[in-house]
What we know:
By secondary structure, the protein is α+β, with helices and mostly antiparallel strands. The protein has helices at residues 4-15, 33-39, 42-51, 92-100, 163-174, 206-213, 217-226, and strands spanning 20-21, 26-27, 60-61, 73-77, 87-89, 108-112, 117-126, 129-143, 146-157, 180-189, 192-199, 240-243. The protein has a 6-stranded antiparallel beta sheet. The protein has a 4-stranded antiparallel beta sheet with strand order 3-6-4-5, covered by helices on one side. A two-stranded antiparallel sheet has the order 1-2.
Amino acid sequence: PSVIPSLLGPTARREAGGPTAPAHGLTLIGSSPDAIRIAASKRETHRILSADAVASVPTFRIDEARPRHDGPWVAKPDDGCGCEDTRLFPHEAAAVRWVGSRPDATRFVLQPHVPGEALSLCVLARGGTAWLLCVNRQRMQVRNDAFEFTGAEVNAIVDRDEVFASLAQSVVGALPGLHGYCGIDLVLTPSGPAVVDVNPRLTTSWVGLGAALRRNPAALVLDLLKADRFVLPAFERSTVEVRVGT
C-alpha cells in the first residue's frame, strides 16, 4: 500500500475515485471494506444480489429453511474459494448429513446444484459502474464427488449480445463498493447467467489477462483511478489458457 501514493502522485491521490483509508492517508486501489465483507460470504452475496433482482445461485445455512429441490445439492464453505471443500451430493439430505458431521459445520452453506457452463468475468469497477474486460471459460471437474478447479480459458467467449456486460453492471450496481479489478463467477444456464461468486481481488484469470488483451491490466486499474471519465480502450484480443495444478 505504501507504494500507491508514489505511483499516483499527489494530485492523483486527492482525485482518485477509490475508497480511502483515512487512518493512513492512502487511497485504496481495491474495493471498500463493506463490499469485501459481503463478497467474502456466498450467502450474503446471494442475499444482496437477489434483493436487487440479480440472478444468483440460492445459498442457505444448514439451519435455514430451504425450498424443495429434488435434484443434486452442493455443500461448500461460505468463505471458500477455488473449489475448496466443495462437494456434490445426489440429494439434500446427503448434503445436510455431510455438513452436520463436520466440526466446522457452521462455516458451510448449501446450494441446489445449477447445471450449466461454468464461466467467469474479468471486470473493472468504479462508483457503481462496471467495464467488462473479458469472459472466461472455467475448467472444472468432479472427482469422487468433489469439485476441482483446473484452470481457465481467458477471453474464450465474445459478448456479442452484451449479456455479460449487463450482468457485470447489475452486480456492480448492487455492490457499488466494488472498485478496481474484480472477478465474477457464474453458471450459464438455458435461462441465462446466474452468479455464483463475486471476487473483489485478483483471480486466476488475471494470470492470462495481459496476454489475452495484449495490454497491461495493472495499468488499466491505475488509469481507472486517475481519470475523471474513464473510457475502456479497444483491445487486440486472443484466448489464453491458464492451467492450475499441472
